[in-house]
Design a protein that fits this description.
294 residues; alpha/beta; four-stranded mixed beta sheet; 9 helices
């Protein structure tokens, strides 16, 4: 069983500010840092640091060498990543003094996938393999359809939620990993219990992991429900918290751990990540997380 993450690769430009800029306002930042990021890259690094073998597919521009280096240093297989003329995707991230963030994305090479390239990558994967997806690359519906035809287990993190997802056949998704906002956007429901109930009605074949910020996370499938609380820490930067949770949860489940243990491991890893700056650099190693669990 192999894990393929077909996802975004971004350069993150992080601006530290007193508060999020408002319409019409000019605001000076106190610091600027550049990190490797993108939900795809972050989740691949989280998977690798959690101990999983993961292959990453996606596109970078001519300025994306540091992204390849970051993935390789984390232990991610990068042979399927394609370099194209032009700019790598990037994000402009504001982080306020409380550690909260807002993000402006530029797709760049992430939006230049072709059907031919998708076919080339998926030729190496088949029944029983796992495909992890987010919504920061183009042709997402094509990737889902072709992976489903090959019998892959498809895990979707529908973030950011936008109209591109309307073209995707969610009945082909094996697991949704999403937060309350995305859950409401899909179901029209606000309360976590109502979101889970509606997702079960709409997509009874799918497992669902719903993250609830400071209220933890919950899991539901056809026969199981499980709730996980957070590990409180001083928040520095929440940018990669969800991606860290995603990578660790998937890695633990693929090791054969139960839902409760997988949620606990993922929650602990995410708590470490929010106590550090940056996206990919904030993701802890498995040994760090295990030490926290003793």
């Amino acid at each position: 069983m192999k894990i393929l993450n077909f996802g975004s690769l971004n350069l993150d430009y992080v601006y530290h500010v007193e508060h999020m800029v408002t319409p019409g306002e000019t605001l000076a930042s106190t610091r600027l840092e550049t990190f490797c990021g993108g939900k795809g890259l972050n989740q691949s690094i989280a998977l690798a640091k959690a101990g999983a073998e993961v292959y990453h597919a996606g596109c970078i521009g001519e300025d994306g060498a540091m992204l390849l280096q970051a993935l390789e240093e984390a232990g991610v297989e990068t042979s399927y990543i394609k370099t194209l003329p032009g700019k790598t995707g990037h994000a402009i991230i504001q982080v306020d003094k409380s550690g909260q963030n807002c993000i402006l994305l530029y797709g760049g090479a992430n939006q230049l996938l072709t059907e031919h390239y998708i076919n080339q990558v998926l030729e190496s994967f088949g029944e029983g393999d796992v495909l992890l997806l987010q919504n920061e690359v183009n042709l997402l519906h094509v990737i889902i359809d072709k992976a489903y035809e090959r019998g892959m287990k498809i895990i979707l993190n529908p973030s950011p939620f936008d109209d591109n997802l309307k073209f995707c056949d969610f009945s082909k998704i094996s697991m949704f990993l999403l937060n309350e906002v995305e859950g409401e956007q899909i179901t029209g429901k606000k309360e976590p219990a109502a979101i889970l109930q509606e997702l079960a009605r709409l997509y009874p074949q799918a497992e669902v992991v719903l993250t609830l910020g400071g209220d933890g996370a919950c899991y539901r499938d056809e026969s199981t429900e499980c709730r996980q609380s957070v590990y409180p820490v001083e928040v520095v930067d929440t940018t990669a918290a969800g991606d860290t949770f995603t990578g660790y949860f998937i890695a633990a489940m693929m090791e054969g751990k139960g839902v409760s243990e997988s949620l606990d491991l993922a929650s602990k890893a995410a708590s470490i990540a929010v106590g550090r700056e940056g996206a990919a650099p904030s993701i802890p190693l498995r040994d760090e997380v295990s030490a926290q669990l003793l």
